[in-house]
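Thread title: Can someone regenerate the structure for this chain?

I was given the following input by a collaborator and told the matching structure tokens would be attached. They weren't. Posting the sequence so someone can regenerate them.
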Amino acid sequence: GALAAPSVRHLFNGIEKANSVTIDPHKWLFSPYDCGAVIYKNPELAKEAHSQEGSYLDIFKDEGTEGFNPADYQIQLTRRVRGLPLWFSLALHGTERYTQAIERGIELANNAGDMIEKSPYLELVREPSLSCVLFRRKGWQPDDYRRWTYKNHQEGIALVTPTKWKQGTTYETVSRFCFINPDTTEGDIQLILDTMA
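Best answer:
Regenerated them for you:
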């Protein structure tokens, strides 16, 4: 998804050299969890890899005047079309709406990083990266993060889950923002951070 954001497109320099690119659109492209896509530089190579043989499939092999046969480019045959929600959303909303939403997620992550740096009781674990922000509450132990997560979720404030940050050979429990919803506000972020005071 982030490839659609001009502000971070440089992070993908060299992607044009790949023979194929896998897309997992369930977050920033707002698709169902099991939706996925592969973009091939040379679709004929994909056809060679995925095309299946069987007399009952022969009728579908006639691409001539009948058109493109998607069964030759993936292995699932009769499974539902998991990519349809993504295609439909792109067709309906256009790429510019996605670009705006993704840029907003990046902006929220950077703004959250600034708020955390200004807080006397919080610390950034690392600089924000795309939509993700890792931060710690000074003095907290793993159980503190767990209780805080459950309390905020039960009170309907937010679901911000703890994660692990590797330092050398040890893992530290920290908190993690991942901004996907473009309707999130800076006020929402401050409200969440204030619950850690």
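DSSP finds four helices and six strands in the chain.
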